[in-house]
Amino acid sequence: MECGVLHRQIQEEPVIQIDKEALRRIQLIQLEMLIEVDRICRICGIRYQIIAGTMLGAIRHGGYIPWDDDADVALLRSEYEKFRKACLTELDTSRFYFQDHRNTPGYRWGYGKLRRKDSLFLREYQEHMPYEQGIFIDIFPLDGTPDMYPVRVLHNLKCFCVRKTLWSAVGRFSEPKLFVRLLYRFLSGIPEEWALRRYEKLIVRSNRKRTTHVRILMFPTPNRTYGYKRSWYENSTPVMFENHMFQGIQAYEEYLTFKFGDYMILPPESKRKVHPVSALVVPKGEK
């Protein structure tokens, strides 16, 4: 199918407006997955943390940020690999499945997703991606980033180039600016296998030695530090989230201030957004 025809078809898919009731059902399904991650990690002695908006929600709201429609977990690379392996034997496959680029053809993101079976969360402009897209939580691996700042900047540029090449499969449709959309269309011609090999080489190079900072290689960092303190992910504390106890970042005040600034102040309503979706199926959660 020609790109232009596919682009028109994708644009014509109506975007679903997720109301409060549907959003809460999505959150409760994601909570099931967070509980499953915690269960597996406890059984297998794997260290993890809830991060980003999930950690912020735990501290500021005691659970989900009211308008949030995702959940985030992070593990240092060695722990992430243990978790991937543990999913082969410990994951409740009657309800969940785990995806990353090594077990899911066509999956182009440099981090994993745990998804709920018998569900659908079809992101706008990702309708054409060739894999199952159930309701999910993100499982992020953290890799080293160079200690010397100039080298870290170069490292970030390499991450940026690989990430944008992988994102081009979506960006060629979603980007509103014509020039950038055409650039993504050009990048989408680069074989996926080539980009993923570059990502795998980045993983190896990023973990040759212990560094003071880490990052998600295929995800942008919030500022020009281009990394997070490794110690944040080495020291955990129990955190209450939706009446369940999970592992969070012990130095959460420092971490949340770094990532969000004055994190106790609510953002304006114009920035309280959920992911646009064109199809949604939410199974009944467990009681």
From TrEMBL:
A GO BP entry: glycoprotein metabolic process
TM spans (from-to): none
InterPro entries: LicD/FKTN/FKRP_NTP_transf, LPS_cholinephosphotransferase
One Pfam family matching this protein: LicD
All copies of domain LicD/FKTN/FKRP nucleotidyltransferase, residue ranges: 41-260
Designated name of the protein: LicD family protein
Species: Paenibacillus spiritus
